[in-house]
Amino acid sequence: MMGTETSFRCPVCRAKFRSRRECSRCGADLSIIMTIVAEAQICRKNAIRAIHSHDFQKAHVLATKSQNLHQTEAGRRLLLLTSWLESG
Question: Which DSSP helix (H) or strand (E) runs through 77?
C-alpha cells in the first residue's frame, strides 16, 4: 500500500518508517505520516490520469502537490514529464 520509496522517519525516535500506524521502536502514532504518503500517491495517480486526458496543466499541479507532500524518485520523474508536457 505505502510503497518502498519512503524517506520518512519517526519524528520521536528517528526510526525508519515501516508503513505501520505505530513506530516499531517507540510506539509513537504515525497515522498522520501514513495519510500524507497516501495523499501523495493519490495525487501521482491522478496526475497520470490527467496526462492520459491531455490535461497537462492539471497533471503538473498534481505532480507538484505529490512531491511537496512526499518526495520520491518516481514523483520527481513525473514532475519533470509534466513540466515538459505543460510547456510544449
Answer: helix 73-87
The answer to whether the pTM exceeds 0.85 is: no
Calpha distance 21→31 (Å, rounded): 5
Can you read off the three cell numbers belonging to residue 80? 519533470
Contact 37, 70 (CB under 8 A): yes
Could you give the CA distance from residue 87 to residue 51 in angstroms, rounded to a whole number? Answer: 13
Cα angle: 16, vertex 62, 49; to 5 degrees: 105
* DSSP-derived secondary structure for 8-46: -B-TTT-PBP-SSSB-TTT--B-HHHHHHHHHHHHHHHH
| Segment 31-47, tens digit of pLDDT | 998 899 899 999 999 99
What residues form DSSP beta bridges with 29? Answer: 22
